[in-house]
Amino acid sequence: MPSFDIVSEIEMHEVTNAVDQARRELGNRWDFKNVEADIELEGERVTLSAEQEFQLEQLRDMLRMAFAKRNIDTRALSEDGESKAGKLVKEHFTLKQGIETDMAKKIVKMIKDQKLKVQASIQGDKVRVTGKKRDDLQTAIAMLREADLDVPLQFNNFRD
User: What pTM value is reported for the model?
Assistant: First the structure.
């Protein structure tokens, strides 16, 4: 029986490259000369720090542009909030990987509401979709791509 998996993964190597690219751009920008600002990656957490709030917004835009250049979906960044440390304002982001249970249930419900001849089941942090016809699976993929979900989805492990 044909099947595929719906996952939400990001390549950490590409994230590292995107953060390095944003840091290089930070070093080249004239409006950040003699300003204490930085972009740090620690595990699955990205921290932006700057002296002013508007500089923090510019850092956020630089990071999102670097992610876009590396084909990393910016919806993988989950904002953890801001903090102040001395004269610096910091903003923390967590990289989301895997599909949470609530989102997985929502995806399964969306597939069932379409009345396609496929079955969707939650398996850990991914959703497996099986069906008799390849065309039904491709219809399910197209429907999920058009849906406006707040997590980046990838479709892999397509078996015929």
Answer: 0.81
